[in-house]
Amino acid sequence: MHLLQFTYKKEEVINALRFHFLRRGEIRVFRNTLIVLLLATVIGYVFRVVNFNAMLGIVVMMVILGWAFWYLLPVSTYNKAATFRDSIRLRYNDEGMAIYTGQGERSMSWRNFSQIVETQSFFFLYRDKRTFFLIPTSAFENDEARSQFSELMQRTFADYRRKLNG
Prior knowledge:
- It contains 4 helices and 8 strands.
- It has helices at about 10-20, 25-45, 50-80, 145-155; strands at about 1-5, 85-90, 95-100, 105-110, 115-120, 120-125, 130-135, 160-165.
């Protein structure tokens, strides 16, 4: 049985939430649609099909939506989740993990998770597309302990992804 103890750092969690939201399929489609709309508007303006006020309106709308996705969505999610402010003790082995917080204890088998994504700062343990648990990589004693956990996750999950840039 291995033990990790950690508290989340707000800025790191907000960046992790940005990573989570921006990699979701529906947000990527929405973002790409807005980019196409912006390009069409700029091209329309260049060819005098779209007036300046319409182009300005679309640019302002994109800035507001970008702000909402980059700042508002992750910060509001962080503020709603009490877990991010708890001190966490996590024990894990080949079968699963037990999470101890100020709210109590919860044991979970690895089968409760559908996907694991490893980034430079976190392990994202997804239960479904929207629900996940974050384990900061800084919680591990050293690189060897982190590598051992990463190897355990790779052996346990067929849908294991490593995105060290995220």
